[in-house]
Design brief:
heterodimer, A: 448 residues, alpha/beta, seven-stranded mixed beta sheet, four-stranded antiparallel beta sheet, 17 strands, B: 487 residues, Aspartate Aminotransferase, domain 2, three-stranded antiparallel beta sheet, 11% strand
Chain lengths: 448, 487
């Protein structure tokens, strides 16, 4: 008997009797007999809880992880500290075992948490309206580009080469679906080349897409890109690092129409890449064009303040093929974790996380440059991640680092053949001076 | 006692903090000397200022305003609110899973790759498909990937005239929305009097401009498409492909497989049939599976096994590409893997048996008091109509759904599928015992009686929830989508 199935044999017989049938097989008599499976599925035999946990523990131990190794790898997913309270709240059954809050009388907890999340995202990005989240940062960017295509009725989307390579690949998948053409503009000194962008802009440009800090860690000149977009009436879409937004001027100040990004850094574990969540925020003008769920404030019959899913006339379950997107779910539990995280860190804490990450990253870069074997890829300002050009093979450096208990930086040559020896290093507030010094020291020991 | 909770911004106290960080141990350089002044934030984001105690109490109180599956019966049709095993939460939090970085490299991620490889193999066996990608983050995302695969398949054969996708009138809203997003014109196909897709209508619609058909089987009426073999023949004979929406897969686990029914592309909802928690609306996971001829089109990377090592295979020129970053909602995959290991083949079949038995029992108990428009053996769910109560007493399905809350139950899915007026779509799942079904049936019968004798009391329900019915019109007309300090 399976422990998740309460009915006993006796109860099943009682129910069959009530239905006036003699066997459960009769309940499947509407399936053509020739299609019914004639043998059991070929799966491993059922195992007890202790056995399953032991097997999974053994599998998990074959992975390197930031709990036992010191992580200097970022490239979109970051090893920030997560306060214990975040996981404890996420494990409350009221949050994780409930469904989408379609019945607001029974879902005020989830609805209010989303409303608070939307407020926090608006505060961080400077935008007017946030949805309840998307699958991840990459698909959020793709949906933003599709939204720009629909809103402007133009067909070209310009993307910076310094947007995350995974995001650019997702854009390549999504945009042709709606007849949009993706055009890449290049880099100069590790940031978007404004001249190249200007030369590629035309009146059929629906949107300009940049990431800040960009994939190489450098900070973009958002004012310049935004101005260019405006002159051609293209929408300006920025993918932002939400932790950096606590100390960087928000994209809204530079005229962004849509701000998206990967939210994992806010209180979510790295989870081998998922789930995290994508945030998606727009100016008021585009409020009714956004994809996904949105929570609004209202009152109940007795005048009590409460919250409800709203603007649903955009969504697939109402509009079907005319919906603004096919998206149904949000990454709700991940968003809850981010909301708890942002509440704990608060105004000052998130700034301190950003500040410490930035200070330590600058310290690490100086140390690596002074230890020899590296040149800067760029001298543009950066936040918590930076790219170097290594004289020694990056694979060899990372191998030595791994042997010494580190998860090393990202090998940029995988996505940027123009940067042979390119190495992207991320430093969060979790890293200590001692770890950074040992890390730099290890790179020195690598054979050329 | 449950109370409404002010938003956290309102209880914020300047100077309070809920975090601790070690002191900075590298030399501090003023931000102004690291970054240009115009890049530095001028006005701090107004995040809350609260102690850890404040934050924990706030979110604990908020949680108490939710109804959830661990508390009681949650019979949402097509949502498969089955119990979420606790063990799975522990497994997903093992540091080797939760704290692994997606780009740390194949060599030091063999456990994660093995888990994904084996889960994909198990799901392929369970569905009868040749291969499965775990990348889609949710059901609708899986649909999009699947339709793109269909599109890529036709295009690879130089067949670009197919611009339409067939969708039955009982389909989930995501089906037409996903088809439209993928650039297809949606053509709706009618259902017949037994609740099956109308074969004549299908024949008529199935031209050489049609790329395929999206089907849910059992469909959203909870009924098995009895003519599935004929439907597959009609669609395939005119060059179309069959897409299987796995939202209702729980009914047929271990009984019949989409691959054997003739489906070419499928998606599954791991947060439905495979017990991963819904999380109040995500994260989910929507793996997509394909028949042999469509393997080259799966999203990249595909996880392969070479000489006992697991690798990311990205060299797939016909692939539709990537539909999200990295490999999928990995932590959700861990839970589904743990679930399948716990259940085994017999357990999964038992789940289907109990889910279907529970649904038929409940339908049978309720059909005397509510209309059951399609009165035949159902699978994991059934659809009642509140039309009788609506027409005779002015009590709508919405009213009755709200009244269920006063009886301690979550309402079923309502006003869907669209082909049933005043629809109530009820899915008990296998993780409820007969006592729960009986208690729910008693509540439904009591509501039917109340609607008869005292309709106003039902029309004003719920009476016991933390808030009464909400003004949804006002919320949409003048949207307030974020908190702002009082003027």
């Amino acid at each position: 008997m399976v422990r998740f199935i309460p009915n006993t044999g006796k109860q099943r017989e009682e129910m069959l009797d009530f239905l006036g049938i003699s066997s459960e097989e009769e309940l499947f008599s509407d399936i053509p007999p020739s299609l019914l499976l004639q043998k059991p599925l070929d799966l491993p035999p059922a195992r007890a809880e202790s056995e399953v946990l032991a097997q999974l523990k053994a599998m998990s131990s074959k992975n390197a992880h930031a709990g036992e190794k010191v992580c200097f790898l970022g490239a979109g997913i970051y090893d920030h500290y997560i306060p214990a309270a975040v996981n404890h709240i996420a494990l409350r059954q009221e949050f994780y075992t409930s469904y989408t809050p379609y019945q607001p009388e029974l879902s005020q907890g989830t609805l209010q948490a989303i409303f608070e999340y939307q407020t926090m995202i608006c505060e961080l990005t400077g935008m007017d309206v946030s949805n309840a989240s998307m699958y991840d940062g990459a698909s959020a960017m793709a949906e933003a580009a599709l939204m720009a295509g629909a809103a402007t009725k133009k067909s070209r989307v310009l993307v910076s080469r310094a947007v995350h390579p995974e995001t650019r690949r997702v854009l390549e998948t999504y945009l042709p679906l709606q007849g949009l053409k993706l055009v890449e503009f290049g880099l100069k000194n590790g940031v978007s080349d404004i001249d190249d962008l200007a030369s590629k802009m035309d009146d059929d440009t629906a949107a300009v897409l940049v990431q800040n800090p960009n994939f190489l860690g450098s900070l973009e000149d958002l004012a310049a890109v935004g101005d260019l977009a405006k002159t051609r009436k293209a929408m300006f879409i920025v993918s932002a690092n939400p932790v950096a937004l606590s100390i960087l001027e928000p994209p809204a100040s530079f005229g962004a129409d849509i701000v998206v990004g990967e939210g994992q850094a806010l209180g979510n574990p790295m989870n081998f890449g998922g789930p995290g969540f994508g945030f998606f925020a727009v100016t008021e003008k585009y409020m009714r064009k956004i994809p996904g769920r949105v929570v609004g404030k209202t009152v109940d019959r007795d005048g009590k303040t409460c919250y409800v899913l709203t603007l649903q006339a955009r969504e697939q379950h109402i509009r079907r093929e005319k919906a603004t997107s096919n998206i149904c779910s949000n990454q709700n539990l991940c968003v809850l974790m981010a909301t708890v995280y942002l509440s704990l860190m608060g105004k000052k804490g998130l700034q301190e996380v950003a500040e410490q990450s930035m200070q330590k990253a600058h310290f690490a870069r100086e140390l690596l440059l002074s230890s020899g074997g590296f040149r800067p890829l760029s001298d543009a300002p950066f936040f918590n991640e930076f790219a170097l050009l290594s004289e020694k093979p990056v694979a060899a450096i990372n191998r030595v680092l791994l042997e010494n208990g580190f998860i090393g930086g990202y090998d940029l040559s995988r996505d940027f053949p123009e940067f042979p020896g390119g190495w992207l290093v991320a430093v969060t507030e979790k890293r200590t001076r001692e770890e950074i010094e040992r890390f730099a020291d290890c790179t020195r020991r690598v054979e050329a | 006692m449950k109370r409404l909770e002010p938003v956290i911004f309102e209880t914020s106290v300047p100077g309070r903090t809920g975090y601790s960080l070690p002191a900075l141990d590298v030399p501090h350089v003023p931000a102004e000397s690291l970054l240009p002044k115009e890049m530095l934030r001028k006005t701090a984001a107004s995040l809350p200022e609260a102690s850890e105690v404040d934050v924990v109490r706030h979110f604990t109180r908020l949680s108490q305003l939710n109804f959830a599956l661990d508390e009681g019966f949650y019979p949402l049709g097509s949502c498969t609110m089955k119990y979420n095993p606790k063990m799975n939460e522990d497994a997903a939090r093992f540091p080797g899973f939760a704290q692994a970085h997606p780009l740390q490299g194949e060599e030091v991620s063999q456990g994660a790759l093995q888990l994904m490889y084996e889960l994909a193999e198990m799901l392929a066996e369970i569905t009868g498909m040749a291969g499965v990608s775990l990348q889609p983050a949710a059901g609708a995302h899986g649909e999009l990937a699947g339709i793109m695969i269909i599109r890529a398949y036709h295009h690879s054969r130089g067949d670009s005239k197919r611009t339409k996708m067939l969708v039955p009138d009982t389909a989930h809203g995501t089906n037409p929305a996903s088809s439209a997003l993928a650039g297809y014109q949606v053509v709706e196909v009618k259902s017949d009097a037994r609740g099956n897709v109308d074969l004549e209508a299908l024949k008529e619609a199935m031209t050489d401009e049609v790329a395929g058909i999206m089907l849910t089987n059992p469909n959203t009426l909870g009924l098995f498409e009895e003519n599935i073999a004929e439907m597959a023949e009609i669609v395939h004979s005119r060059g179309g492909l069959l897409y299987y929406d796995g939202a209702n897969f729980n009914a047929i686990l271990g009984k019949v497989r989409p691959g054997d029914m003739g489906f070419d592309v499928i998606h599954l909802n791991l947060h439905k049939s495979f017990s991963t928690p819904h999380g109040g609306g995500g994260p989910g996971s929507g793996p997509v599976g394909v028949a042999k001829d469509l393997l080259p089109f799966l999203p990249v990377p595909v996880i392969s096994k070479r000489n006992d090592r697991y690798v990311f295979d990205c060299d797939r020129p016909l692939s539709i590409g990537k539909i999200r970053s990295f490999y999928g909602n990995f932590a959700v995959l861990v839970r589904a893997y743990a679930y399948i290991l716990s259940m085994g083949a017999d357990g999964l079949r038992e789940a289907a048996h109990n889910a279907v038995l529970n649904a038929n029992y409940l339908a049978s108990r309720l059909k005397g008091s509510f209309l059951l428009p399609y009165d035949r053996t159902c699978k994991h769910e059934f659809v009642l109509s509140g039309k009788k109560q609506h027409d005779e007493k002015g009590v709508s399905t919405l009213d009755m759904a709200k009244a269920l809350m006063d009886h301690g139950f979550h309402p079923p899915t309502i006003y869907f599928p669209l082909v049933v007026e005043e629809a109530m779509m009820i899915e008990p799942t296998e993780t409820e015992g007969k006592e729960t079904l009986d208690a729910f049936a008693e509540a439904m019968l009591a509501i039917a009686k109340e609607a008869e004798e005292n309709p106003d009391s039902v029309k004003t329900a719920p009476h016991s929830t933390i808030v009464a019915r909400l003004d949804e019109t006002a919320a949409a007309r003048k949207p307030v989508l974020r908190w702002r300090p009082a003027e």
